[in-house]
């Protein structure tokens, strides 16, 4: 198919064309560099796609289908926008709509509440456990809805994984908090400061385990690998492990800037007259700092690895190697 020419658009972002010649089912920016992946994921998490109507979604899907058949002439801007909307809302494997709270574009708008709750200063035991449960429940739903779904899995597998993930989060957070509260030799101010950072190791570990638990079935059964023409070559457990481990690494990193920035900034803001005026002001400022930190952290974590990842054929199972002469095959890592 002839590429759609660029029409009156010479804008660039960090040296990349803002709207290059359109490529169906491919990212708008190069995925072989961190910066290109970062720009790609800014599209993926764009919260404006949460407000796209069903009518607009159907128009975008139709435009892309017509383009595939060579039956439409549209600008690169129109085509890239249509693909952005489709990929933000529909699962790449199932083609089904992902509920807004569990889309990557909804991760920050719906997740900031639990993040703010986890970072409340000097929480009680019920508060601590409640927000850890809420956070890992949201994470589990996001991991499930953005998994590689090229092979069906029994729902009971995910129910057991959810229980394990929540148990890990609550156990880790409660254990660290208990140890700090028992550290009577530390000044109370020091203990309070340290406790602000408790959510970091607890959430990082729990988020990693959440991915491993929720997507463990993929590693047991394998996922689809395909060649450059998107022709399915086989089912690989090796590729599945790579997909899950890479996703787990992004979740391990995600809480680092997210949970380090607020504890460093809030003590400074808490000295201002506005924050000291009332508990409501304190809560609002804390929520704003957490939300900004979340929005800053998410695309960086996602950009650590490309979503459509590659793997050397020589690393895959022997039966897959026998079916192709390609040196590399590809798979959907999930998000």
Describe this structure in words.
With about 325 residues, this protein is mainly alpha-helical. The protein is built from 14 helices and six strands. The strands form three sheets. It has a two-stranded antiparallel sheet. The chain has a two-stranded antiparallel ribbon with strand order 3-4. A two-stranded antiparallel sheet has the order 5-6. The longest helix is centred in the middle third of the chain and has 28 residues. It starts with 11 loop residues before the first strand and ends with a strand.
**Per DSSP, what share of the residues sits in E-state strands of 2 or more residues?**
5-15%
Our measurement of the CA-to-CA distance between the termini, rounded to an integer number of angstroms, reads 30 Å
Q: How many beta-strand segments?
A: 6
Using only C-alpha atoms, the radius of gyration works out to 22 Å
Helix content: 55-70%
What is the number of helical segments per DSSP (H or I, 4+ residues)?
14
Which residues sit in consecutive blocks of at least 5 with pLDDT less than 50? 1-8
Helices and strands, in N-to-C order? EEHHHHHHHHHEEHHHHEHE
Q: Largest sheet, order of strands side by side?
A: 1-2
**SS class:** mainly alpha
Task: Report the major sheet.
Answer: 2 strands, antiparallel
Kindly state the mean pLDDT as a whole number? 82
